[in-house]
């Protein structure tokens, strides 16, 4: 990404993060937090086409709060980008989803994707924050850094 563009992006994330810190500063359940995060990110980030959470539920990865077109409710086990994020416990940036082995296409307009695992206070992974874009190569280390920072609000 061009340097000036990544500075603009980082500044936008910084503003969103500040707003989220204020909004989520009081005791509130995780679902309300996730819903607030998805709404703010989705409507402030022009490159976000689908923005949401997948949550581990009795060994299944099931959809949580999201914004964007209808998504798969349950993701086939150990397949695709979200499951890779859970299994590797690391942020995954996929510049072109069509060449990611096992990618699950909930909407064929998605072209690139970033998945950030979520950890509880005992460092146990409990879900992922997933963002799709209609453009190829839409996500950079700036997105990874800020989405990981935002994900920590849910610990
Ligand atoms: N593409 C994801 C599935 C979820 S959608 O992107 C909303 C995957 O491969 O795990």
Report the helical percentage: 25-40%
Query: pLDDT under 50 segments (min length 5)?
Result: none
Secondary-structure element string: HHEEEHEEEH
Task: Report the mean per-residue pLDDT as an integer.
Answer: 96
Measured distance between first and last alpha carbons: 30 Å
Number of domains: 1
Can you put this structure into words, describing what you see?
By secondary structure, the chain is of the alpha+beta class. It has one domain: GAF domain (Beta-Lactamase). It is 36% helix and 25% strand. The chain has four helices and six strands. The protein has helices spanning 3-23, 30-44, 80-88, 141-151, and strands at residues 50-57, 60-67, 74-75, 92-94, 112-119, 125-133. A six-stranded antiparallel beta sheet has the order 3-2-1-6-5-4, with helices on both faces. β2 and β3 (74-75) form a beta hairpin. The longest helix has 21 residues, at 3-23. The protein starts with a helix and ends with a helix. The mean pLDDT is 96. Bound molecules: methionine sulfoxide. Methionine sulfoxide (SME) binds at residues 50, 71-72, 75, 80-82, 103-104, 106, 110, 113, 130, 132.
Secondary structure layout:
Elements: H1 3-23, H2 30-44, E1 50-57, E2 60-67, E3 74-75, H3 80-88, E4 92-94, E5 112-119, E6 125-133, H4 141-151
Antiparallel strand pairs: 1-2, 1-6, 2-3, 4-5, 5-6
Helix pairs in contact: 1-2, 1-4
Bound molecules: methionine sulfoxide.
Methionine sulfoxide (SME) binds at residues 50, 71-72, 75, 80-82, 103-104, 106, 110, 113, 130, 132.
């Amino acid at each position: 990404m061009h340097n000036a563009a990544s500075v603009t992006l980082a500044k936008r994330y910084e503003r969103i993060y500040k707003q989220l810190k204020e909004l989520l500063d009081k005791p509130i359940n995780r679902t309300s937090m996730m819903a607030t995060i998805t709404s703010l990110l989705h409507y402030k980030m022009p490159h976000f086409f689908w923005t949401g959470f997948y949550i581990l539920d009795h060994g299944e990865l099931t959809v949580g709060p999201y914004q964007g077109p209808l998504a798969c409710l349950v993701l086939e086990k150990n397949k695709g980008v979200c499951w890779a994020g859970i299994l590797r416990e690391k942020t995954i940036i996929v510049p072109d989803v069509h060449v990611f082995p096992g990618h699950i296409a909930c909407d064929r307009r998605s072209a690139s994707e970033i998945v950030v695992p979520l950890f509880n206070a005992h460092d146990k992974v409990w879900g992922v924050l997933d963002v799709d874009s209609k453009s190829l190569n839409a996500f950079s280390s700036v997105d990874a850094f800020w989405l990981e920072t935002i994900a920590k609000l849910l610990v």
